[in-house]
Amino acid sequence: MSETPQTLFQAGKLDEALAQSLALVKKNPANSGLRFQLAEISCIAGDLERAERQMETVSNQDPNAALGAALFRQLVRAEMARRECFFEGRVPEFIGEPNPVIKRHLLALAAIREGDLGEAAALIQDQTDVDTTVARAATTWDVNGEAVGELRDLDDLLAPILEVHTSTGKYFWIAWDQILSMEVHPPKRSADLLWRQASLSIESGPDGEVYLPAIYLDPSQPVAEDESLRLGRSTDWVETHESIVRGRGQKMLLAGNQDLTFMQLESIERQES
């Protein structure tokens, strides 16, 4: 008896799961559930175009599944916008005017795209004291119910940034101190390991359901080669220039003195000093 795409996926055999899922769809082209499964595995494998094609087909052939397919297509489009931001120069969306720290990190990303790692390192290091001093002086957070005085991504480029996808296909950079509260929902489907659903409340912004990218984009290429990294089951660190560290695989945060994997994140609530 052959293994199913889901058992292959759970075993960490991403490429085999993708091949098996594709074969099942070819045998059962009218099965929307199989097309959703193929779309989810395709996204994790980095083939966003295939995922969008599957959802377009579902929308056209199954009215009962059209709403779910429409949401999935918007998340795929948000992920495409994310990759265009990292690798092609697209500017992310913001809530209000981005603060000086965020602007410097956006310039650092541009320098990385242009191959100027020295300039990127200078921009990131130039704002480090501003980032930590201002954040610690002005804001504390409860993270998973524990009070912390510092909250950042462990990837130096993304340190002051929470990446957010919306159900309208937008990709945002949110500063940590813009967050009033966030409740992260437990994963239910394979795609939830790629984009974690959360209820987010933002200062001077809308409240609602969002989707948080949980896996870093590879510093050197849009799709990581290692299956464990693509699945978000491990994290690897790459020192790019002058001790600037970039992440691959599952995202990780620094909450106070604790390293926190993105799958361990349950809630954030801002506490005013």
TrEMBL record:
Signal peptide: none annotated. InterPro entries: TagJ, TPR-like_helical_dom_sf. It comes from the Bacteria. This is ImpE protein. It comes from Novipirellula aureliae.
